[in-house]
Amino acid sequence: MLLRLILLEMRKHRLAGYIGGAAIANVAILLFLLLIGFTDWGAKDYAFANYEVSFMLIDTCARATFIIFAGALLSKMIIGEYRNKTMNVMFTYPIKRHKLIAAKLVIVFVFTFVMIMFTDLLMGAILLGVDHFYSFIPDSLSNTEAVTLLIKYTISSLSAACMALIPLLFGMRKHSVTTTMVSSILLVLVVCSGINGPSVSINSIIFIPLALGAIGLWIASLSMVRLETKDVN
Predict the structure, then answer these.
(1) pTM for this structure?
(2) Which residues is 201 bridged to in the sheet?
(3) pLDDT for res 228
(4) How confident is the model at residue 66 (pLDDT cuts 50, 70, 90)?
(5) Which stretches within 75-227 are classed as H helix?
């Protein structure tokens, strides 16, 4: 039943359009990384000084972009439907209310996770390919380091997909699309900010993204529990 609801929601909200938008976002990220690479060349704290810092920059761009994408999805699929009362119509269907919301949240979560991982892998592959021909990164990447980075950024993508649900808490208060989007942007400013230059970010302090991810999951479960009371009235 849940899978069928997810497929119906994807068709209803034309998720393919967001995938097209994600493709455009990936092109923008690539151009941004190229701009940094050329303008920052020769600097003491060069953004692509080694593979660890390079992949951190790629992941930061991916997380920032698709957390905001998640905010747009939450605004359209949940907040917007409360505002125009179509959610009330949906609640008249012979389907449990929490399943309706769960289907929407699963879509947002999976979309965010898949797109961040895809962007990390795509940009990482381009980085390795370009470095193979032009060798602008002084160190080398061993197979063990590559696997470690893959595991690290898979966990990072999962936590980002979870924390991307946090703006739902603020948007649901007055069913405000603007509040949801502003919350997403503020969240990006917090989790994607750097400490001591490009080599260290908030996300690298492991307990912070894990804690925010746990909060995102808690908010998702809370939104389903509240369906029977305040949010439906």
Answers:
(1) 0.87
(2) 194
(3) 53
(4) very high
(5) 80-83, 86-90, 97-134, 143-163, 167-174, 177-191, 207-225
What is the spatial distance between Cα 129 and Cα 35, in angstroms, rounded to a whole number? 17
d(CA 138, CA 51): 9
pLDDT higher than 80, residue 116: yes
Question: Residue 66: which residues within 8 A CB-CB, separation 6 or more?
Answer: 22, 25, 111, 112, 115, 116, 119, 160, 164
Q: Name the band, by pLDDT with cuts 50, 70 and 90, for residue 179.
A: very high
Spatial distance between the Cα atoms of 227 and 120, rounded to a whole number of angstroms: 36
**Contact status, residue 75 vs residue 177, Cβ threshold 8 Å:** yes
Burial zone of 97 (CB within 10 Å; 0-12 exposed, 13-18 middle, 19+ buried): middle
Q: What is the sign, positive or negative, of the torsion defined by CA atoms of 81, 192, 219, 174?
A: negative
Q: What is the chain's Cα-based Rg? A: 19
